[in-house]
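Narrative of activities, Objective 1.

The group set out to show that a structural description can be obtained from nothing but a protein's sequence at a throughput compatible with the screening campaign. Below is one input-output pair from the validation batch, recorded exactly as produced.
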Amino acid sequence: MRKLIVTLLLAIGSLTALAGDYPYLTFEMTDGEKVSVSVSSLSISVSGTTLTAGSKSFTISNLSKLYFSTEDLTTDPISISELTADEWLTGTFYDLQGHKVGREQMRKGVYIVELKNGTCKVVVR
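Output recorded for this entry:
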């Protein structure tokens, strides 16, 4: 376990020298979840089996990899928000079978909305 911790700290120290234009350090877990922390004034510590980077704590055995990134890559598996009026009017709607659906044809159910900046899932009640 000590070898893993020392190797991890050495890797972080080595990567810091290359971090120049990368404002985030991203931790990827074994389940694919990603958490990014800002590198400005970043402090990293290890206590037992827990690595703490800034305000985030990780169980070392759950870490798959870490790397510097140009953007916050934190995954948010449960993210609920409302569509804006503009998104509702300009989005392209599809049913779960992939068929394009007009807003006037929508009934109760789940739809995929293609937007300018990505896609989202919508529930019509």
